[in-house]
């Protein structure tokens, strides 16, 4: 083949191949950037190395390493009541945290559940968060949640307890997905400042690339699959990250037969709704209403 013929035959393929490689590389970068916007395990600085311990809050605990279905090792805190008899008679709260930090940063919340409500508490640092292995993705976090639920329901003490799942922001999406698939194993859902899905948030921070969204978290679809357990919605009216209409729409979409409750905090922003007056009083009243024969205080 002559050089001219070779050039005419191969050059277009090289151009097409090179363009495809550039496009593919660009899409890969966009996916990576997207995930870095959704999952921020390195913020605040040092969050991958320093994970506060429950003992710093006067809470007894056992650190546990779980291996997920896809062979990733994640770390959890298991905080049981002081005796086996007490632990088996009190509810267990599974805490799913938001997109930043690690489980140790939510210990002030665990402290209220443990000390005020006398609950057992289980906390998890998702894959890629805290000292857990791996890289955070939607599918990966769902597998993490499944592994923690299986641990609780196989534990010789916790398996018999009422299970409350508490999720903030991204943690709310994790909680909704878990319950949509495992409702028979869970008794109550508490949501704070969570979203309908990721594509409906991305335009604020990453415009024009919704068609490339690989992380969906379709809570607006999943919440309709929850049929029987009661749901408490805790919403900060001044949430500047997740507009309040996300929570309002999730509330409207929920059709659980055990009822739902809406609590709004007029001064609550994305990060400080949990600090608003009477926040835990509302939580306690909801738990007391839906766990028959159990006293919160």
Automatic annotation (TrEMBL):
GO terms for cellular component: membrane. This is Serine aminopeptidase S33 domain-containing protein. The chain crosses the membrane at residues 12-33. One of its GO terms (molecular function) is palmitoyl-(protein) hydrolase activity. Residues 89-219 form the Serine aminopeptidase S33 domain. Keywords: Membrane, Transmembrane, Transmembrane helix. It comes from Rhizophagus irregularis (strain DAOM 197198w).
């Amino acid at each position: 083949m002559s050089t001219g013929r070779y050039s005419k035959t191969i050059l277009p393929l090289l151009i097409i191949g090179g363009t495809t490689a550039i496009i593919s590389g660009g899409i890969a970068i966009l996916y990576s950037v997207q995930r870095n916007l959704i999952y921020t395990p390195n913020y605040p600085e040092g969050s991958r190395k320093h994970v506060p311990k429950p003992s710093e809050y006067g809470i007894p605990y056992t650190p546990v390493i779980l291996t997920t279905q896809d062979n990733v090792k994640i770390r959890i805190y298991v905080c049981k009541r002081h005796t086996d008899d007490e632990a088996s008679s009190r509810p267990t709260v599974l805490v799913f945290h938001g997109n930043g930090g690690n489980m140790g940063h939510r210990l002030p919340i665990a402290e209220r559940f443990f000390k005020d409500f006398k609950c057992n508490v289980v906390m998890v640092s998702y894959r890629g968060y805290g000292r857990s292995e791996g890289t955070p993705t939607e599918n990966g976090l769902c597998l993490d949640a499944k592994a923690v639920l299986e641990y609780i329901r196989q534990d010789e003490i916790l398996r018999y307890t009422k299970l409350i799942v508490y999720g903030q922001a991204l943690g709310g999406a994790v909680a909704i997905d878990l319950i949509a698939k495992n409702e028979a194993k869970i008794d109550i859902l508490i949501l704070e400042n969570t979203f309908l899905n990721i594509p409906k948030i991305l335009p604020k921070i990453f415009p024009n690339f919704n068609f490339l969204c690989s992380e969906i978290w379709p809570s607006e679809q999943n919440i309709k699959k929850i049929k029987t357990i009661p749901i408490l919605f805790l919403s900060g009216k001044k949430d500047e990250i997740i507009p309040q209409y996300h929570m309002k729409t999730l509330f409207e979409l929920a059709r659980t037969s055990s009822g739902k409750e809406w609590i709004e905090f007029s001064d609550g922003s994305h990060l400080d709704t949990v600090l608003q007056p009477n926040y835990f009083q509302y939580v306690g009243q909801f738990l007391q209403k839906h766990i028959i024969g159990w006293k919160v205080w």
